[in-house]
């Protein structure tokens, strides 16, 4: 097996993140810029759910459809992803999220200018930076925000590991993206009050960097008592926590396959390799 990514693979690795941001942030843009006439919280949840689902379908056979650094970290911890691939995947995820933000900005540029009269602000009644990245609700403290991200991402990791674990019940082949999408929907409708369930460092920081250079300025990093690092660090901790919980309480307790079945698999493997 190759332990590195070719240039072609790297390009395909970051493409699915574009879809996640395009559909997800696009649904937020449509809701905000139409002043609720063409969107509501549920449509935003659906947008992100379908964005993640289609991203996994698009690149699942090429790179495993890694669109979240927290998921990639969990796979590294569990030995399912080589450490040397991790930085490449994370870089590709950030680039894909940044590119997706560019697409949303271009798609809704005229509507954005009309809505803001050309004044792009981060906070207040006419804020539009929240189209691209997460910002905390007024009631949310830094500590509670961090815990929010750890719990939300940990739940995501637990579900993804269960869905893709062939020694568990798992999901039928080809249905994994749908099940992962439904997991995002479950998180969205149950954990979105505090800060909008970013649970993905690349999906949040990539678009935030875009807004910083596209006209919103450095306030995107200062807003919410320098909130920006919470949806970056929290999900990474949540990814490690989710991986540890699944390994300790589920994976270690899978029943060992029967010896006869192991012998049959070994025999089949030897037959194949000898032909």
From TrEMBL:
<keyword id="KW-0813">Transport</keyword>
<feature type="transmembrane region" description="Helical">
    <location>
        <begin position="177"/>
        <end position="199"/>
    </location>
</feature>
<dbReference type="GO" id="GO:0015204">
    <property type="term" value="F:urea transmembrane transporter activity"/>
</dbReference>
<dbReference type="GO" id="GO:0016323">
    <property type="term" value="C:basolateral plasma membrane"/>
</dbReference>
<feature type="transmembrane region" description="Helical">
    <location>
        <begin position="146"/>
        <end position="165"/>
    </location>
</feature>
<keyword id="KW-0472">Membrane</keyword>
<comment type="similarity">
    <text>Belongs to the MIP/aquaporin (TC 1.A.8) family.</text>
</comment>
<keyword id="KW-1133">Transmembrane helix</keyword>
<feature type="transmembrane region" description="Helical">
    <location>
        <begin position="227"/>
        <end position="250"/>
    </location>
</feature>
<dbReference type="InterPro" id="IPR050363">
    <property type="entry name" value="MIP/Aquaporin"/>
</dbReference>
<dbReference type="InterPro" id="IPR023271">
    <property type="entry name" value="Aquaporin-like"/>
</dbReference>
<dbReference type="GO" id="GO:0015250">
    <property type="term" value="F:water channel activity"/>
</dbReference>
<protein>
    <recommendedName>
        <fullName>Aquaporin 9b</fullName>
    </recommendedName>
</protein>
<dbReference type="Pfam" id="PF00230">
    <property type="entry name" value="MIP"/>
</dbReference>
<dbReference type="GO" id="GO:0015254">
    <property type="term" value="F:glycerol channel activity"/>
</dbReference>
<feature type="transmembrane region" description="Helical">
    <location>
        <begin position="86"/>
        <end position="108"/>
    </location>
</feature>
<keyword id="KW-0812">Transmembrane</keyword>
<feature type="transmembrane region" description="Helical">
    <location>
        <begin position="44"/>
        <end position="65"/>
    </location>
</feature>
<dbReference type="InterPro" id="IPR000425">
    <property type="entry name" value="MIP"/>
</dbReference>
<dbReference type="InterPro" id="IPR022357">
    <property type="entry name" value="MIP_CS"/>
</dbReference>
